[in-house]
Amino acid sequence: MALSARLEVRQGQGLVITPQLQQAIKLLQMSNLELEAFVETELERNPLLQRDERDNEADEAPVADSAVTNEHAADADARADMDITYDEASPGERATGDAPEVADAAAADAGGAIDWSKAGSGGSFDRDSELGDGALTREKTLIEHLQEQLAASGLRGPDLMIAGMLIDAVDEGGYLRAEVDEVAERLGCAAERVETVLGVIQGFDPVGVAARDVRECLMIQLKDRNRYDPAIAAMLDNLPLLAKRDLAALRKVCGVDDDDLREMIAEIRGLTPRPGAAFAGGEPATPVAPDVFVREGAGGLWNVELNSDTLPRLLVDQRYHARVSGQTKTDQEKTFVADCMAQANWLMKSLDQRARTILKVSSEIVRQQDAFLAYGVEHLRPLNLKTVADAIGMHESTVSRVTSGKYMATPRGLFEMKFFFTSAIQSSEGGEAHSAESVRHKIKQLIEAELSDDDVHSDDAIVDILKAAGVDIARRTVAKYREAMRIPSSVERRRMLKTPA
Fold first, then answer.
1. Domain locations in the chain?
2. DSSP at 246
3. How far apart are CA 475 and CA 322, in angstroms?
4. pLDDT tens, residue by residue, 197-227
5. Are 380 and 415 in contact (CB under 8 A)?
6. CA nearest to 467, candidates 448, 497, 486, 446
7. What is the distance in angstroms between the CA of the first residue and the CA of the last residue of the chain?
């Protein structure tokens, strides 16, 4: 077969990802701190952008607030305001691919529903690295160190929320600055459950973290070294005597001789009264600013409002643009001014659309999880990205980007939006599905109610009890949840109950 060269014309579809579309995607997934850094860079780079220093925030904010009951009625208006267009790009700006359905994003002008599922999280901006340069060299904070351990702790659902709130209340020295009863009241759960989760956190590194006072901090460290006994416990109960060096009183209280007392004092001196001090050299912890406020309104409704303090307020200086445009002489100058104007207008539209999207997603989350807000952490409903995406007419990837790194301030505390998404377990009676977290809680309650070895429930028995309560669950799922909560098997629990205390 002879080889020959020939010309051939083919028709196909390709995806055009312009820098403007990449920018819109990146803005949507940025946290408020990353967005602030990005806007600062744009203000330095684009002379046509200015900060809006006027006081009438209500007139300039793209979206003021939204009642949960009206979020669907506002969808049409929000989509109509997107006004996103796709300009013809040069060959260097085109990114072709084999996914023709993604090209339908160009219809966003009319419908407003942009499918960003095929657009990667990366981009071609030269400024992208500026946002993360400091993250590679910055020291890890104590809170970040604890959060990494929390992710590997096996805690799920309500326990994970409780742990997150407790970790947020740990100060730079490593001490817990929140009352257990207060946390339990805010989350609508039992104080004993908060104590149990606190015990898990107190097992994290550094040893002694999340203690409520110096005595508890030292006690945790001594238990970790297997050096906690009644004598040294008595010394911890009388730390003021140790501070005054009243050795005679300490010997009497602890019931030890001089040699043992010296050893105990040396043991105490070898401990760390500030377990978080090792992380003091890093950046000070930055308080998390909520992106959305949720407040209870009249008639049991919940009002969702964007945090205007985290929204950039920019203006395009039209007067300066008109003056500069009249003084341009070369084609290069005209191109520069035109590019600055186009980028400034696109940035304004992208910021407005980002705010509207966050409001729509958060409003739907509140509508789905209103039972949690009203009654507490035990009433979380099963929720996934698809449910929210279908309700507001967006793609799942868009909802995922919106909920990542965004925080919601509620009467029960500050939560990342992703915390409200929980898996579902079907009902055995064909009714409403059960949240996986609520099922975990039921399993834990059944096991905690075991008072003797005769009351111990096997995994099969728990399955039968849950099915009788309307929860369709498999035995392997019960075993998985039990192991995730670090609860031993029925054989081990029966053995523990038989062993005398």
1. 19-85+289-409, 142-284, 424-498
2. -
3. 72
4. 999 999 998 999 999 999 999 999 998 888 8
5. no
6. 446
7. 89
